[in-house]
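Recall that a protein's primary structure is simply its ordered list of amino acids. Everything else, from secondary elements to tertiary packing, is in principle encoded there. The following example makes that idea concrete.
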Amino acid sequence: MVLQWIGNLSERAVKILAASIVAAIFLLPVAVVLWMTAVPGISHTGTLPPLTADQAVMAARLRAHVEAIASTPHNIEHAEELEQSAAYIEGVLSTLGYKVERQRFRADGQIVRNIEVVIEPILPTAGTLVIGAHYDSAGLAPGANDNGSGTAGVIELARRLADLRGTARYRIRLVLFVNEEPPYFQTPLMGSLVYAKRLKQSGERVIGMMSLETMGFYSDRARSQHYPVPLDMLYPDRGDFIAFAGTVSSRSFVRKTIGSFRTRTPFPSVGGTAPAFIQGIDWSDHWSFGQVGVPALMITDTAPFRYPHYHTAADTPDKVDYERLARVVSGLERVIRDWR
C-alpha cells in the first residue's frame, strides 16, 4: 500500500518526501541531545566579583581540611591513613555541635565506615535532601582534589547550615562516603551504595542527592577543557566552570539545581544530562542513588576531562584553587537554603 502510494506521487513530491525523511533522521538525534543538555538560566561570564571576606575565611578553612584529609593516600590499602582522615572529619563535625553517626560495614576483612550528620527539619514528615562526597582516595594518590575538595565542601556546608537545625523545611543529610574509588567503584561494597540502599529501606522520602566530586581545579587557558563525544560539541573549551551533571532520569533535578545556582551565584557553570553509557556521566556517588531510584547529580570540575593529576601521586593540596572552590561552596549553600 505504501509503495503504491509512493508510486502515485510526482517525482518532485518523492524528492521532497525523501528529503524530509533524511532531515528527520538527522534532526531527531540533535533534538534529543539538545533536550538532554538544556538547562535554565545563564552562566556567569567575564571577571569574577571580588572575593568576599566570608569567602576568604572559608577558602582558608577548605585548605586546612584538604591538607588534613588528603595529603597522603588514604583507602583500604592505606588503612591507618584512611582512619586518620575519618577521625579528622568526625572531630570537626563534632566541634560544630553535630551528633556524628557512623555507618560501619566490612570490606575485604576490614571495618570501614560512612560518616553522617543530620540537620533535622521543623516537621518530621518533611522530605530529605542528601549532600555527600567520598573521602577515600584512589591507589597511591593523596586525593586532594579527588576528593578532598568535595569532602571539605561538605564539612563547610555543615558549618554554614548549622543554624537550620530544627527549623529547615526539609531534612538535610550530610554524608562522607568511604570506598568510592576502585576496586569498590560501582560494586556492592561502594560506601554510597551501602548507604543509599539502607536509606531506601528505611522508607524515608528522599527528594534528591547532590554529590560533591573533584571540585577544586580551574583553568582560564583555552583548550584546557575536554569532554566525551558528543558533549565536546556543546560546551566551552576553557576549564573555568563548575558542572552539574546527571543521567537522564534525573533531568528535572539537575535543571532545578543549576537553575538555582545560576540565579544566586556569579560563577561560570554548565550542566545537563546524558545516558549512563556516556563516559564520565555517572562516575561518582550519585550513581548509587540512581540505583535505588533517587534523583541525583554530580557537582564537579569534570575530573579527568580537565584535571591533569587525576588519580596520580601529584593530586596534592597545592593543586586546589581554594578561592574558586569557596565561591562554589557558598553558592551551593544558597541553593540548599532556598530549596523549594
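Residues 121 and 169 are 6 Å apart (CA to CA). The beta strands are 101-107, 110-119, 128-134, 171-177, 206-213, 242-247, 269-274, 296-300.
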